[in-house]
Amino acid sequence: MTTYFPFLRGKREELFALKSLASTIAGHHSVYPIIEPVKRNSITTGSFDKFVEEEMPFVFVTNPKYGDYKGRGQILYQEFCVDGSLGEYENYIPALYLYRGTGMDELNDFNHKFQHLLRAVIYDAVPASDEVRQYCLTQGIIYHHILLDGKISTEFTNEIPTSRRILMRDNFKRQIRNSDYPPLEHFTDLNTTIGNPQNINWGDYSIVGDQFSESGGAAMTVAIHHIHKSENSGALEISHFLSDDQETTANIGGKIIQAVQNLVSALPKLHPNDTCACHQYQDMAASGHSKGLGYLKRLAIIHHLETMIANE
Q1: CA angle 132, 135, 136 (to 5 degrees)
Q2: CA 59 → CA 37, 49, 229, distances in Å?
């Protein structure tokens, strides 16, 4: 059985989704979130406090490439690992992005800061330094090698033990307009034996995708991105449920209810359909009360995580 590593940038709804499932994730061994902190605010610190309280395991990105902590790894370390809740917490794995130009100075600093913990590296590229490459490939304390799909050669990948690899792939096919999403798409079959015969641990960016943006624009069409299992193969598919009204940016609340009702109408034929997120969709459809676009995103992430926990 493989472990699923959802790669989530630490924005509001991603963190709230993880907080709502922190105790559940802590009690299972099928989901291990990778969290890249991107917002320097109380929501972020409070979320990590909750993860620690529930003893949730996670991978902690120590040198984010997006957001408020980009280029400010020392500040991140001080706030979370020295002064914050991670100072005495041991149920997490610190991770370092590796780039073409990453040198031993940065790697040594990372090792010094987290010398008592197992560590992970995230390959945004194969480092040019022979010393860096050899260190990562030979040191047992580098427990996870997170391979960003399309960034690493097969030759280098094959030098990493299969049990230490995590294949990270963006399975979300982003469209410019919400109205362009098709009703149904293949998402991944890495959760199946046929799609993943080597049983390599894997991850994705859930229904958000790898693209990072600080905020969203006004939507003419509301879309709910809903992960479920193929009835035939067990692979993951994604259905896109759209609002009926798509002509203007007005009445977002009404459009949210339209999209939710379209999803709820289809739920009997989708599996799983009994997650906590599904029950929230059903309550929203029945009440006709919208809780906003952010809440839809949160529920979609929660449902995806619940689906993967149920896949254990």
Answers
A1: 85
A2: 11, 15, 26
Which of 286, 283, 280, 284 has the alpha carbon at shortest distance from 300? 280
For the chain, 312 residues long, give each residue's pLDDT as a single digit of tens: 799 999 999 999 999 999 999 999 999 989 999 999 999 999 999 999 999 999 999 999 999 999 999 999 999 999 999 999 999 999 999 999 999 999 999 999 999 999 999 999 999 999 999 999 999 999 999 999 999 999 999 999 999 999 999 999 999 999 999 999 999 999 999 999 999 999 999 999 999 999 888 766 678 999 999 999 999 899 999 999 999 999 888 999 999 999 999 999 999 999 999 999 999 999 999 999 999 999 999 999 999 999 999 876
Number of residues in the chain = 312
Whether the model clears a pTM of 0.90, i.e. scores above it, the answer is: yes
Encoding tokens for residue 283?
Answer: 């309550």
Helix (H) or strand (E) holding 239: strand 236-242
Contacts of 172 (CB under 8 A, 6+ apart): 187, 204, 205, 206, 207, 208, 209, 210, 225, 238
Q: Which two tokens stand for residue 155?
A: 């030759």
Phi, psi of 305 (to 5 degrees): -65, -45
| Half-sphere exposure for 217 (CA within 13 Å, toward CB) | 7
Please state, in angstroms and rounded to a whole number, the distance separating the CA atoms of residues 159 and 166: 14
35: closest CA among 53, 57, 10?
Answer: 10
Element spanning 119, H or E: strand 119-123
